[in-house]
Structure formats: structure tokens, C-alpha cells
Amino acid sequence: MILLISGMQTACKKKDVYPGQALPKITAVAPGSGVPGVSVMIKGENFKNVTAVKFGTVDAAAFDPASVTDTSLMVEVPAMDSGKVFVQVYYANGAGYNAAPFNVLLKPGITSVLPLTGYPGDEVTINGVNLDIVSEVKFGAVPAATFIATKTKIVVNIPAAAAGGDQLITVTSASTGGSATASFNVNIAPQVFSISPATAAAGDVVTVTGARFTGASEVKLGTTPVTYTVVSATEISFTVPAGASSGTVTITTPNGTVTSSTALTILVAGLAFPIYDEALSGNWNGWLGGGWGGNKDLSNATPVRNGSYSIKIDYAGGWGSPLQLGGANIPFGSYTQFKLSIYGGPGTTGKRIKIVFNESGGYELTLGAEGQWNDYAISISNITSATSLTAIWLQEFTGSDYTIYVDDMGLN
Length: 412
Description:
Elements: H1 2-12, E1 25-30, E2 33-34, E3 39-45, E4 50-55, E5 58-59, E6 72-76, E7 83-91, E8 97-104, E9 109-114, E10 117-118, E11 123-129, E12 136-139, E13 142-143, E14 147-149, E15 153-157, E16 165-172, E17 179-186, E18 191-196, E19 199-200, E20 205-211, E21 218-221, E22 224-225, E23 228-232, E24 235-239, E25 247-253, E26 256-266, E27 273-276, E28 288-289, E29 294-300, E30 310-315, E31 323-325, E32 330-331, E33 337-344, E34 352-357, E35 360-366, E36 373-379, E37 388-389, E38 392-396, E39 402-411
Parallel strand pairs: 2-8, 10-17, 19-26
Antiparallel strand pairs: 1-3, 3-6, 4-5, 4-7, 7-8, 9-11, 11-15, 12-13, 12-16, 14-15, 16-17, 18-20, 20-24, 21-22, 21-25, 23-24, 25-26, 27-39, 28-31, 29-30, 30-39, 31-38, 32-37, 33-36, 33-39, 34-35, 34-38
């Protein structure tokens, strides 16, 4: 009987439930809400066999089963729509799971930035999604003072204090903790806005206004360095040196170099006897030779060396002389030089023209760099042995077709 009772007790004993067979249980989720990409700590019991985590129907991001302990695991909120969902932990093959509520918050996103580079103060447009919740826009570490945001667009100006070079634009929502970034380049090289006066002579003081001039190490007029004063971050002044030619102004600072978009026009000093300055002088008695091999325009508006007009000469067919002046009688007297300024059109560098006085002899002039005004002073004795000037030809002497512009022509 005793043996029978003992056997019955053994047969009726309740089956043990081992820890490995118990269902997972979530006890805490921290934080309980967040934007996609935020790390979430899930605490609970019986996690060591968890093989999957989902937010709603979407697999959690950054889930590593090998890092799971029996009481905790880490994941990130996956890319998904905002709203209230359940975060769920699963055993293999769906053998068991547990869930807890979670609130997926909106996250701003950037799809494009226009332009991709700019100077401090320039306007930038950021396109994207959920941008109406953005509370801060930064260029690198510097926040923008103000910006205008809609759901799909932010319009902002680059902060004056933004660091130069490649930076990240960061948009952040304080209400949700979400942020997004995009690459951008801030150009902190100097800028030139204006040059005053636009026309100057040797000895005149010229003022250049712009931005970021602090620390300027060089200022050039054309290719010639000039002595300058950095008045402020937005102003540089210099005195036009003797013998200077018209040209753009170039400023170099530790952060870059800028060349003005317009040229400073320098008046040619000492044209004692002008032959062409805005128009022909009256010494030619109205006689203009018909010439050959091209065309001329005595009232060309651009480019000009000084004032409003220059002479445009189109050489056609080679060896042409479309500009011929005659009918004058100008004693050379104390004049020793023939001066003129020539702007060469495309393909003129190294070409030659022949300056002919009084329809004989002449001087072959090799043209300087094209695309800029070059000033020439030629001894009259190298052109003619005559004692007076009665006619001038400017003849093409390379056998080519091209265009030149002539200004500030006269005797010294």
C-alpha cells in the first residue's frame, strides 16, 4: 500500500516550467516615443531567446540578437510613418511575443539644398519633408538668426559668422528631437561690390567696397601690385600709381582671392596733342581715306579705354588699312612720341600692325595680350623722319583677319 501511494504521488506531480520556455515580457520602454533613428532601450524578462523586434509591422533598426540579455535589448526606431504603434519582441518563428505602446514622432528630412555653395548673407533654400516643425537651422556650428519654414521648404540666409569650407546644414525639431543634415560649402573669400570712382588718374585715391577684406595681403590693379590700406572689413583704398593701366582690381586675403567684375579705367596722362579722344581732332580737315581690307567705326561704344567711345577696326583679307586719316599739317616740333591704346580682340596676341605716317615708311607694332587694353608709346623718329604729320594709316601687317579697338591716340 505504501508503495502504491508513493507511485500515485509520482504520477500526479505537476510538470516543471523551465525559464527557457517562458514567454518574453516587456516591463519598460525608454524613451516611450521618438523619431526614426532614435535608440530605444527595452527592458523585461525572458529576452534571451528573442529573435525579432518590430515597431508596428516594421522591423526595428540596429537590432543585434547577439547583444540581447535576458532582461534588456537595444534597437532603433525604423524609418516609418509617425503615429502610435506597438513595439513587439518575438521568439523564433512567432512562438511567442509581448508588446508595449510606443509613439513614433515626426522627423524633418532634407531632399535638396539650393544652391550648394554661397557667401555669408546669401539666401539658401532647403527642400524636404516635415520642415514646418524645425526650430533651428545651423550652418556647421553656427545657427541662423531667422528663417522661414513651410512643410516642404525652408528659406534661410547663411550666418555672417559661418565658418568657411565644407559644412553640414542641420535642421532640428525641439518638439520631437528629430534632425536632418545636408552637405554645404560656405565661401568666405572676399567679395568686391563697387569701385569708386570708376575712372581715375595717377595719384587719385580709389575706394573698393566689398566684404571680408580683413587680413588682405595683396591688392593689384590689373597685374600691377599697388600700395593699399585696409580701412575696414568692407573697405580698401589705394592710390593709383604712376604709369598704371586700366584693369580689374584683385584682392587676396587668407581666405581667398577675388577679382572685380568691372575694370577701373585709368586716364592716360600727358596726351599733349590728342588725335583721337572720344572723336577725331579737327586737324584732319574732314578727310578720311576710304582705305581697304576691312571696316572702321569711329564711335564704337565698347570696349573703350576712357570715356564713351573708341575706334573699332575690323581687318578683313589681310594687309588691310581701313583706317586712314589725312589732310593735316601738324608740326612735330617738341613732340617725340606717338601714343595709342589698343584692345585686341580674339586671336590678336602677337599679331602685327604697321603704323604709317605720311603714306610711306612706318613702324611695325607687335600686339600685346588680347582681351585687354595695352598702351604703346613709340618714338616718332622710329616711324618717320618727316618734320610734320600729314597722314596716318594703321595697316594690318600679318596677313590675318581680326578686330582691334583704338583709343587715346595722340602725340607727346
